[in-house]
Amino acid sequence: MFAQQLVNGVLLGATYALFALGFTLMFGVLRVINLTYGFYFSAGAFIALFLTRQAGFGIWAALPVAAMGAGAVAVALDWLLLSRLRRVNAPELSSLMVTLGGVLALYSAATSILGPDIRRLPPDLVASDAFVLAGLRVTTAQLLILLATAVMVGALMALMRGTRLGLAIRAMAEKPDAAGLMGIDTGRLAALVSFISGCLAGAGGVLIGLNFNAIHPYMGEAMMLRGFVVIIVGGLGDIRGALIAGLLLGVIEVFTAGYVASGLKEAVAFAILVVVLWTRPSGLFGRAVVRRA
Amino acid sequence: MSSLDVQGLTVFYGRTEALKGIDLTVAEGQVVCLIGANGAGKTTTMRALSGLTRPRAGAIRLDGADIAGWRPHRVAAAGMLQVPEGRQVFAELTVAENLAMGAWLLADRAETARRQDQVLARFPRLKERLDQPAGSMSGGEQQMLALGRALMGAPRLLLLDEPSMGLAPLFVEEIFSIVADLKREGTTILLVEQNASAALEVADYAYVLETGRIVLEGPAATVAHDPAVVAAYLGG
Ligand SMILES: Nc1ncnc2c1ncn2[C@@H]1O[C@H](COP(=O)(O)OP(=O)(O)OP(=O)(O)O)[C@@H](O)[C@H]1O
Ligand SMILES: [Mg+2]
Questions:
Q1: Suppose B75 and one of A148, A192, B12, B51 were both cysteines; which one would form an S-S bond, judging by CB atoms 3.0 to 4.6 Å apart?
Q2: Do residue B93 and residue A179 have CB atoms under 8 angstroms apart?
């Protein structure tokens, strides 16, 4: 029972980590708390729903296409809502308010167009059988989630640590003006970072949609609360921190639901957030940032 | 090598006019210095030239092309590179990574390595610290890195904003001797300095900026003997 809960928690946490990675990347590099971020999660899930239901896509094709679709949504929204604020160095509060207004408009528009109902991916999208390994049950969907998350996190780490482009992203995260003076097109790099973040959020939406088999316009909103817990506990802009904190949150939620009460899992998550901030104001892992990836 | 011709450059911060239409010229192969008190508008001039601050009016001709209003990466690609005030090295990146960023516009690996060797020959101090985070170095070392990083981009025109600011005398000397070396090698330089005596010594031509206006200009040797300059900037 304990080991099984741990496996379920890690799998759930992997998706939280994936979602939070994009959020923390966006914050770390573009230095805005972009509240539209949760919407990319919903967008990814809905694009996958459309692709699998209407366009005959399998999950392996739908996942990357939906992720990139959400990435495109992120780029468009960043350009529409934030690029001009960045150009005039607007105070942080204005970007917060603009994205708050933007995301409320987006959710209500999405709900009025798509309806508030919970939708489901096609039942035969992934094989429903489960593998039993050393007494632990893992469904095909869970394996897929784990694999997709590992691939994406690995790719992000490789990009940030091992490439010139990743170096430029870290440089821009630290000193955007100086990065511009090096000849880095910071506007384009910002768009790229938005795209990558949007892809991570969108992929998270598809995977959570798959895990819980429930897709609705506001699903990104519930996820945003977890996103905040993870990136704050992990340290704002800290990629490794987000990864660890995401996994922890998943495990804690599953254990709270399993051993305490299902309704309390969010209360516990937020209590942890408060306690972490009291004791370690800059996150569990101190002050590391995107540039240290 | 390259030449710069600025006319009527005007910059506003909100409603305050920080630069009130300045004209200046940097001829190919020259070192031109711009001196002035705190808040005169020297950094504003530099930022407008490199595209970090958008000018309200005026023309900035780099080899004839008007680059006023270009974004910084385009100005850099045109060969005018700025070492900003306060160094602005990437503190969390290593020295080697900072140098690599300086060569961002250079796709060629072999050429990047060759330039890095040249830069390290000029700044041997950086060689021992290649894998050290730039932020852990002393101010003087960081200034060397900021200069070296710009040189990685093989500038045709170099904008230096107070390279000697806050440095110990030994480092100040080293910085000015490097500026003199670069001049000998033919690099065109616009140098902003509060250390007016050292700047006037290395420069060919000088401008004096006061509250957003050029109030005096001339060959550096002439400006260095101007009574008002001696009184205000040379502690005479
Ligand atoms: N971002 C800004 N917003 C508003 N005002 C500014 C800004 N930057 C500079 N100023 C103002 O513009 C004027 C010129 O500043 P600038 O930094 O160009 O002076 P400076 O000659 O470089 O001075 P220093 O020798 O201290 O570096 C000053 O009055 C300064 O307060
Ligand atoms: Mg200045």
A1: B51
A2: no
Joined together, the tokens standing for residue B51 give: 């595209």
Token output for B125: 């101090």
In a shared domain, residues B186 and B142:
no
- A179 touches B: beta carbon within 8 Å: yes
- Of B154, B180, B195, the last residue of a domain is B154
Q: What is the CATH number of the domain that holds B43?
A: 3.40.50.300
Atom of ligand 1 nearest to the CA of B37: 25
**For B17-52, what is each residue's pLDDT tens digit?**
999 999 999 999 999 999 999 999 999 999 999 999
Identify the domain boundary among B133, B154, B175.
Answer: B154
Any residues with CB less than 8 A from the CB of A251 and at least 6 apart, and which?
A6, A9, A10, A12, A13
Q: Does A181 touch chain B (CB under 8 A)?
A: yes
As for the ipTM of the complex, it is 0.94
Which structural domain range is residue A49 located in? 2-219
Domain presence at residue A117? yes
| Chosen from A181, A186, A188 to mutate, greatest number of chain B CBs within 10 A | A181
Domain with B56 in it? 1-79+157-236
Per DSSP bridges, beta strands B31-35 and B205-210 are parallel
Model confidence pTM above 0.95 = no
Q: With CA atoms as reference, report the closest residue to A265 among A38, A16, A20, A43.
A: A16
